[in-house]
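Moderator note: this is an archived Q&A kept for reference. The question asked for a predicted structure of one protein chain; the sequence and the answer are reproduced below.
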Amino acid sequence: MADGLSSLKYGIGNQDVGSEGSTQDLLMFLAESIGPGYGLGEYSEGIQDLVKGNISGIPKAGLGLVAALPFGKHISKGAQKVVDEGVDLFKNLNKNSKIYSSDRWDSAFQRTYGQGKVESAYKERIKQIDKANKEGKKIKDYELKLPDSETVLVENVALNPKILKNVQGVHGEHIVRDSGQKLKRLEKNIKEKGYKQKDPIQIYVREDGTPFINEGNHRVAEAIKNNRPIINARIHYKGGSEKVKGEFNPFNILPEEKATDISTSLNISAEDLTTYNKFENYLNTLQNKIQSLLKKNKLIGKAKGGTVLKDYHKNYNTQRLI
């Protein structure tokens, strides 16, 4: 919440591009999912250009088709048409997503439900980091307390698995999810029984817009490894994160009308706005204290000399000097 609330339509930013196979798979998936009535046949020339990688200069776009496209030297009119409509096609898969909102103004406590959850999380983080500092221990980002409960829940969301490549696991599962026996068992099961995603993966979005995978880390790893174009997700927005800038802002993954409904779901009267802003300033003071404590935490071990150690919790085994 430190960044403030906003209901602007945010761009997704840079994403990893896929291989020819993933592009073909995604195009076929879209054609089959939307149905023959939509008719991608008229874009045959453009699709061929996309599959060959003959495109460039594509601006920022939402999640979906563009995230899996290979980049090349030029773009034809046909390919541009596929790109322009591809984003909407992918979002169209989420037209049946179900949205549940629980954020509201609480007259008794003079704050919103989301603000209360953020306050509790911030106070817990202060205790966590202070304790770690006193014990001389490093604390990881994913270890910090998340706000309890969600302010918005969105079910049945289609995502491109590649955007989850660098998303951390709630309990640090990202460190080992790309290898190990669990992933091997999953791949073996899929090979024997086919790919059937019965249960959606669970994504938590922290109040500052940072996403974490709570359930389905190995399913994400398998989907990325095998160039699957789609993965089904349930997204839990915590502490008002549905109104914060970030990759998982609803405008990046949902049809505009659904995202708009979410962005306007919290209506605060002019009479309560002053109190609301005052509580926001209070949350900012807590956040400033957290940042101050984290700064001290990063200094732990610096005075021990120039020993190089591996930090398995940072950038997947990259080395740092402590």
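Archived answer notes: Residues 270-298 form the longest helix (29 residues).
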